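sorry to bug you again but im stuck and you know this stuff better than me. what follows is a protein written twice so to speak, once as letters and once as structure tokens for the fold. id like you to explain what the token line says about the fold, in plain words if possible. anything you notice is useful, everything is just below.
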Amino acid sequence: MDKEVITKIESDDTSSVEIKVLLFARARELAGVPDLTLKMPSGSTTQKCMDELVLKFPSLEELRSCVVLALNEEYTTDSAIVHHRDELAIIPPISGG
């Protein structure tokens, strides 16, 4: 059974990508998970990934306008294209003293 799942993912590589999403601070609290794998259509932007995350975790909407995104450990924009096996970090503002 595992072989069938792997084959399906490999055959979908041309039309979709899988990325790892890392959630920090308040984003982690709201989603209830530190990280997850997100499957997106090829050519998706980081903004589309954020849209999908808000669909999966509606409570993330409160942070949407103030998060910083990092793609493969570099700060990025909403319009950056994600590729297979990229790592997208969702970094909300952090307060402290």
About this structure: Confidence is low (pLDDT under 50) at residues 1-12. The chain has three helices and five strands. The radius of gyration is 14 Å.
